[in-house]
């Protein structure tokens, strides 16, 4: 398994992280690393997803950003399905379906809203609880439903480099490591995305996964 250390040094991360946490898109909070916004744009152009799932809506800024990127990349009809424990109240946008749900119980949400029927390719972004169990729950559910070629990003393994992963029981990096080891024949790390700006110069080290 590749190292999960990002290319960011601790002093850089301290200021970079405060920028990420205060960033807004169209006036709405959007907690995205700018490097990863670039990687997402490239991924979406290459994949041309027909369905995009985001777990962790927060204020809805990232769902808005994804809807705009999809429109700009030739996928204006691709729905953004954005899931959170609470739905943002201030955003009405025909391109986005905000659904109330828990990452630990996505199966019932899939059944209730017939999400299995959404067309592939899928692009899935897990950006919710960041706990080991939450990441594993999302990875396990989507692994069974994704088709070859579909992509999944697990956000914020950078928590390790920020010294915060113990609080998340190992968080995204421990989950990715266990998941990729146990799914070596069906998932691969998309290193061309993780390493686009330097080896794991991303908030999502080894976090861009492709179903093969
Ligand atoms: C980091 S924020 C999401 C940021 C957003 N994607 C963005 O880029 O702006 C994490 C979100 O996950 C949600 N969350 C936390 N635990 C969750 C769970 N068990 N199931 C679903 N969502 C959860 C929180 O309510 C919070 O809004």
TrEMBL record:
Molecular function terms, GO-annotated: methyltransferase activity
CC per GO annotation: plasma membrane
Highest taxon in the source lineage: Bacteria
Stretches of the chain forming a coiled coil according to its record: none
Pfam families linked to this entry: RMNT_CmcI
Organism taxonomic ancestry: Bacteria, Pseudomonadati, Pseudomonadota, Alphaproteobacteria, Rhodobacterales
Protein name: Uncharacterized protein
Keyword annotations of the record: Methyltransferase, Transferase
GO biological process: DIM/DIP cell wall layer assembly; lipid biosynthetic process; methylation
Signal peptide: none
Record has Transferase as a keyword: yes
Gene3D superfamilies, per the entry: Vaccinia Virus protein VP39 (3.40.50.150)
